[in-house]
């Protein structure tokens, strides 16, 4: 990757308030992330030439249409959260919206509604008034809110207070124009079938409340949700099963929740971590059986239940227990060209660029620089 700062890079560097040396070091770090070899034979993402899309389904077709390219604001949380009085960098929701729109993004996913107290609107916009202000800024810069990692009640049955808070968040979602509202946590952290049955009852009930408000409720999942369900075999001292039939926890959740009430957001990076980690299970007869997880295959089987994705990339690291280290989108080895080609429905899915470790304690512009990298690489994905 050529890390020379070109004339087209200069406006970004100036807008972000970054010196030439700092900008170059950031670009070099991005480039260095693309050299590792892939796990499981996956090919690195290739940034295809910017050629016009061919006919429907043909070679060169854009895999992510322009109006579907989004980013979760967790990626740039340092920018929304910093004090605008202390820096010339974009700070607070409004300035960050403006910068993301300049990069080309047309969608955002919230990760809460808090920002720095000195930003326009104040520290918390988690209110009807705050949502109206956010909506005005979204409209101003041509952005659409698609979802939020916000409040999903933890108690079950619901308390009155939790139900009231949940309804308030649904009202905020409607003001912001969202089709979806969700959370960043698994339905349950348990591996036992009985606990997933309880979680399914809860999510079906919440999904019905959300449906009445015109919102689709979704759960966002990391690697552990793709581990194997404990649903068979000898019972332990507490009467719980100790072995698996081979179904994964989230697959079971899909089978026992109403497809008209409960949706999912696959974090594609963490799904590939699960592919690396959860490769075998102990069958009811005590034998060990191998079963490699296929993230795109799961989506293809339940396509309409995955309206949202987190588009997050990684390079190989077999020493950290996860198989990958996180890097800016499009600079790693996860084969997004194949993934998006296999799942199809390109005018239905909404990929949100995410990088958990984008903020830097030494480079305050890094998260926005990586956001631009992510947009460019998402826009470059084309069918081979």
TrEMBL record:
Organism: Streptomyces shenzhenensis
Pfam families: AP_endonuc_2 (PF01261)
Xylose isomerase-like TIM barrel domain segment(s): 97-353
Protein name, UniProt field: Tat (Twin-arginine translocation) pathway signal sequence
